[in-house]
């Protein structure tokens, strides 16, 4: 193999390693729960790798011994049987020890996932819909619920207890950098604790096939210091404050027709519950659960042709002319 071919092979071999880091990787843990699962994964690889090497070594020894017995007359005697029996016992003992280590490691990891018991944790409800996420925070001061969508904010160093449910089919909540996945089942609530330790943006995803647009059911996760999180939550609790220019006024007027039937904008007459709450939509990073970037163009594209961008989504194509669609996008882009 020439030098160029070797370089290409090395580069090709390195491609899978790109999935081991980044904003959506269990091998790059950024929280207590993710660390516990990562440690369990490393332990599993060590145990399973050791057993694999033991099996390969035993197989190689058996092949070499069989070749020797075939070449040397009288080499096969009762001593070989006794050695084989000892080898089987050693291999069986190693497997039992390895499995015992994995059982203990799994028990320790399970306890670490809910180590706080929910004491003093921030309360959050997440409900999966085809194909978006309703997210509600319990205000620690007032006790009321503050609703947003498709973007989860978490205070660094604090535990957040997330109550998971589904409004339609089975979904699965997964933020690999922060914690393991947990199913969201219609008619019941599962509980997941999140204790992030690293600031930054991460990516969550539905990890259970839930229909045509399953791959486009993502959400952004922002881990920030507690003071920044508290300020963000206080802003989210406030009603919408829209722009006052004529284009925004026209957009609000158009929005109050077909859009307000499904969407809520607190502080206005829009109180729909079928779709995401849009009170502070412009403060989010994406449109339609990660389908488009949060820009005026992204908003206008989604308003104009949602079925073309995300076929099967619950948002219908609304017959707005270009001027009205632009006005609604301008109005929503001001809801920060």
UniProtKB/TrEMBL annotation:
The chain crosses the membrane at residues 40-64, 88-109. GO terms for cellular component: membrane. GO terms for molecular function: copper ion binding; cytochrome-c oxidase activity; heme binding. It holds the Pfam family COX2. CDD domains: CuRO_CcO_Caa3_II. Residues 246-336 form the Cytochrome c domain. It catalyses: 4 Fe(II)-[cytochrome c] + O2 + 8 H(+)(in) = 4 Fe(III)-[cytochrome c] + 2 H2O + 4 H(+)(out). One of its GO terms (biological process) is ATP synthesis coupled electron transport. InterPro entries: CcO_II (IPR045187), CcO_II-like_C (IPR002429), Copper_CuA (IPR001505), Cupredoxin (IPR008972), CuRO_CcO_Caa3_II (IPR034236), Cyt_c-like_dom (IPR009056), Cyt_c-like_dom_sf (IPR036909). PROSITE patterns: COX2 (PS00078), COX2_CUA (PS50857), CYTC (PS51007). Keywords: Copper, Electron transport, Heme, Iron, Membrane, Metal-binding, Transmembrane, Transmembrane helix, Transport. It comes from the Bacteria. SUPFAM superfamilies: Cupredoxins, Cytochrome c. Residues 119-235 form the Cytochrome oxidase subunit II copper A binding domain. It is found in: Membrane. Belongs to the cytochrome c oxidase subunit 2 family. This is C-type cytochrome. The lineage of its organism: Bacteria, Pseudomonadati, Pseudomonadota, Alphaproteobacteria, Sphingomonadales.
